[in-house]
Amino acid sequence: MPAIQPFPEIWLISDERNDAQLEAALRSLPRGSGFVYRHYHLPPEERVARWFALRRIARGKGHVIVLADSSLTALEWGADGIYGAPRSLYPRRDLLMLATAHNLTEIGEANRMGADAVLLSPVFPTNSHPGAASLGPERFRMLATHAKMPVIALGGMDAKRARGIHWPHWAAIDGLSGS
């Protein structure tokens, strides 16, 4: 993993829902937070233009910026890392690797591929997947014990819920952008 110390506690995840609030959200995050840029909804030209506009703000705040794309694209675009399902990540030591996981199998895959962190979700009900089952705090904690790397709580998270479950690393879409 690149020298990213301390590892960010708070991670903002981009989404079509929070796009209009991203500039303000990036500026309001504590210095050195994390930002995962997804923006799958945009056509390629718009996606890259939006990345560079948001990257400028994130860099100005000292945030770690991670791209949901290939490692090659992440290097070309100047990202600090890559984000995705464990099987979709091509391991590189010059990029931070954030793997997504929803169950024990995916945590095992993240362990085997050497991910630097895993985003385990959904901890709570979330607008991203209305009506879908959530892990709940107890199951989340049980699954997190199997990870060999930092676990980032995702899904219905905000500062109050992070404090409520006493978890140091958390990520949000709506909970950090007011969307």
Order of helical and strand elements: EHEHEHEEHEHEHEH
Predict the CATH topology.
Answer: TIM Barrel
The named CATH superfamily: Aldolase class I
Relative helix content: 25-40%
Looking at how many chains there are and whether they match, the oligomeric state comes to single chain
Q: Which secondary-structure class do the elements indicate?
A: alpha/beta
Q: Give the distance, in angstroms, between the N- and C-terminal Cα atoms.
A: 32 Å
Beta-strand portion reads 15-25%
Low-confidence stretches: none
Question: What is the name of the CATH architecture?
Answer: Alpha-Beta Barrel
The count of β-strands is 8
CATH first level: Alpha Beta
Cα shape: globular
| Radius of gyration computed on alpha carbons | 15 Å
Mean pLDDT: 92
**Major beta sheet, specifics?**
8 strands, parallel
Count of alpha/pi helices:
7
Number of domains: 1
Strand order of the largest sheet: 7-6-5-4-3-2-1-8
